[in-house]
Amino acid sequence: MITPETILEVESPQRGTRHLSLLTLLAVLITVLVPIVVLAVQRDTEEEWIKTEAIGNAQILAQQVHRSLESVDLILQAITGQVERDLMGDKRPQEKIIKSLASIKRSRPEFYRILITDEKGKVVYSDSKNAIHTDASKLRSYKAHVNRGRQGLFTGELVNSSKANLQFLALSRPYFTPQGKFAGVTVSILRRNYFVTTLESLTVNQGFNATILSRNGRILAASNELPDEKIYKKKITADVFNKWIQTNATEALEGQVRESKATQIVAFAPIKKYPYLVMASIPKGIALTAWTTHAYVMGAVSVFALIFIIVVYTLARKEALRRIEMEERLIVEKERAEQATKAKSEFLSKMSHELRTPLNAVLGFSQIMQNSKKEPPTKRQSNAITHIIKGGNHLLELIDEVLNLSKIEAGRLDLEISDVPLDGTYIACQELVEVAASDRGIQIVHSPEPTLSVRADPTRLKQVLLNLMSNAVKYNQANGMITVGYEEPTPGMVRIFVKDTGKGIPLETQSAIFEPFNRLGAEQSGIEGTGIGLTITKQLVEAMAGEVGFSSKYGSGSTFWFELPKAKNKVIEVKTEELSDNGLNLDDQSLNGKILYIEDNQENLSLMESIVEEQPGLEILSAMSAEVGLPMAQLERPDLILMDINLPGIDGYQALQLLQADMRTRNIPVIAVSAAAMPHDVSKGLEAGFKAYLTKPIQISDAISLIGKTLSS
């Protein structure tokens, strides 16, 4: 239903465009003022900014160089681990390891040489056969491990090799025998230009220089290289660097670096795990140049932003008007849809009433003929009557399930969620299916869990479980078995499963199991069904925050299950007497009393008269309108009044009010008998004051039981 509040949610075109204009003006002010404020603040903080930039660059460089060194270290660890594993097997496949080392060298050009020595410093493996058996005992990489014992990675200083005409850095790791005895060293000799290339690739700012230093201040690599023959000997001589080394300060400092006479902003960052530092330096004068360039750029951006805002405002205003027009159309369409839904519900309710009225006569008279003691039917007649009742009940079931499905799809399903004990629900469902199961010799096995309960609507939970158990009976083999049990597949959820020993469902039709009105070929089997029970079951469980599923193997049976949230409380006591049948046993007592039935349908009147005639102690009076029935009630003073709701002229609700207002009839109990069987119809009738509400088509046993209870009370 469209309400005024719903309509107010959509702004008028004038209000929407007014907001857009204010936002545009605010955007213009921001576009003009923000650059001015930013540039003013930046002018005052340019030095702090450049220092922060230097520190950030140093940290980034340190991380990148750390990754480069760590990748080499990981290769060393892999090689060392392989050699140690070979030692455990007491074998050294020399050719295989040499090929492996050569492969690493080909894929990683930063490696000049990879050597593996024995415990005496003799090279036993290398990427080159020419290096095998050479003496490496004088290498610092070997001596460091012999002197330091069982240590990890060793990193040396930059070394200039005149013989090989290159500068290199050696990284090494020791390896040990399975008994923990020192067995040798794995040495990787890295080309210095590997680090130079890394630094040059990370130098992005104009005037920005990057340098890798050892802890004693010697330059290992730099982005703006000095000649190669000097680089490995060169040291930083600035006092500021020595001060930083001593204090380990983290702030950026000012000073002169190397040959540059310009004041530099310098920042250092250590490389984790390795005894090296990264130095990032930026000439201080670049700060003002960058600020000036930034000012020009921001001015240009502001101009373009203003143009962009104007264009966007024009387009947005047009789009806003279009969307408002669309929203107004949606409101109209929503109202039409709600009216259509309401009309559909009214149509279904009316159709239910119109179908139940003739069904009342069909099923009622069939029951009378089948159970008549005065004129019992022949065997042939009894068979025919059984088919009539079976077909009528099937039609009634179809009507009920179509109404249920329509109500769920319309989103008008009212749920009252509470803690529901599963065993109590099972007992109620088992009592309803045990007769049909017994007729086919089907055994029902239950795994009780008396303390287990779920969060659900009690009525809907019973409807779901009853549907699955009824299906398990209908589609089972004769003399088969049904197993009902509970599981907790995930914390906080309870799974209830119903397993049968039927034929199962073919794989090719399983995907359509929950489609409405699709019985998967069962309509040819002679088994009664509507084809929408599982559809309703799925939607009911999902409405209760649960999930439905199944598994089936053709020829071996099926297992249907549904999951619901587990109740918070652990123990719920269930009293058996609350679940037992408290109905009246008609064989133990006789009924006596006078009944007035007010009904405008002659077939329904005749049906009720026939029902009452089967009870010797009952007398029935009938009236086809309230205008006739009310004076009869005042005159005859019946013990019970049965009242149709949809009467011509004065309807059932008005007639009830008149009966309650009259001193002569106010104490006579009135039971509603109506084909209006929707839940809200029943609730409305009970709230109006009817003693009970009997829906058509009536079950004779239910009707007689209700009449007996009312008369006896």
What can you tell me about this protein's structure?
The strands form five sheets. The protein has a five-stranded antiparallel beta sheet, with helices on both faces. It has a five-stranded antiparallel beta sheet with strand order 7-6-10-9-8, sandwiched between helices. The two termini are 44 Å apart. Mean pLDDT is 77; it is low at 1-13, 227-231 and 571-589. With 713 residues, the chain is of the alpha+beta class. The protein has 19 helices and 22 strands.
Number of strands: 22
Structural class: alpha+beta
Oligomer: single chain
* Structure annotation, total helices: 19
Helical fraction equals 40-55%
Main sheet makeup: 5 strands, antiparallel
Whole-angstrom Rg: 46 Å
The low-pLDDT segments are: 1-13, 227-231, 571-589
The average pLDDT is 77
> What would you call the shape?
elongated
The strand order across the widest sheet is 2-1-5-4-3
Sheet-strand content, in percent, reads: 15-25%
Distance between the terminal alpha carbons, to the nearest Å?
44 Å
